[in-house]
Amino acid sequence: MSRHEFLIAGDAIDAAVEKKGEGYLAKVGDKSFEIVTLAPGLYAAVVDGSRKTIAAVVHNGTTYVDIDSVLIELKEPSADGFAGGAGEHGVEKDKIYAPMPGKIVKLMVAVGDQVEPKQPTVIVEAMKMENPVTARAKGKVKAVHFKVGDQVDTDRPIIELELEG
Question: With contact defined as beta carbons under 8 Å apart, do 5 and 14 qualify?
Fold first, then answer.
């Protein structure tokens, strides 16, 4: 059984995974899940009695997991703390980054628009899933650096805000 520690929304989570037949047995905290592989990077698990579809991809040392359209960013600890991916931009409330590499399928704001915290601003398609990306702070859209159809990564902001308050 391999053991891992991840940071999810700022909380350290212990997990253990072991191969079991064609799939895996995962233990996260006090819960256990059987996971079956559907295709490379695509899995299914039964969680609290309901079947969940799980997609996963690793980019720049960060694992991005999509569970029924809920995106989770997992980072393994390093000597200098957690690094890589969109998470390193967590303190930059004036910039909106893609949560993982993908393609912009919808822009929901334009330069000059006012945005509120948690307001959807752009939809990025990754692993055939649409991921809404929300604003982290109240402000006015100062710049939109990409257009629909553009490929984005986690290193360059899609949108910049002029923060209020």
Answer: yes
Nearest to 131 by CA among 77, 58, 55: 55
What CATH topology corresponds to 2-75?
A: Glycoprotein, Type 4 Pilin (3.30.700)
pLDDT tens digits along 1-43: 677 666 555 566 777 888 888 788 888 777 888 888 888 888 8
Does the reported pTM lie above 0.85? no
Q: Under 8 Å CB-to-CB from 49, ≥6 apart: which residues? A: none
Q: How far apart are CA 109 and CA 121, in angstroms?
A: 6
Nearest to 158 by CA among 126, 138, 135: 135
Neighbours of 43 (CB within 10 A): 21
Task: Tell me which H or E stretch contains 76.
Answer: none
CA distance 139 to 122: 15
Q: Write down the domain spans for the chain.
A: 2-75, 89-163
Cα separation, 155 vs 110, whole angstroms: 21
Question: 89-163 architecture in CATH?
Answer: Beta Barrel (2.40)
